[in-house]
Amino acid sequence: METTLRHLPIRHRFTTLVTRDDVEQGKPAPDILLRAADVLGVSPARCTVYEDSDEGMAAACAAGMAVIDVRPFTRRHGGSGPRGVIPARQRDLWRE
Prior knowledge:
By secondary structure, the chain is of the alpha+beta class.
């Protein structure tokens, strides 16, 4: 990730990077998101996750974080309408 960000004009916007290599379990486990919140010193309840996968959305919900599905804004998807924002009160729908 560091290599990719180094070549983009947005690297300066990230104070912290947490990757799959920093945790024991990857998504849909919430480990990576909880680690990021911990490193930043922020309560998971105050975090919003922008996600592009079902696994990531499940991880965010399991971490107790609000989540926004960015897929409708980044590529075409099947289904009858946009998926959009999942309000915090609907997070339990994503729990397994």
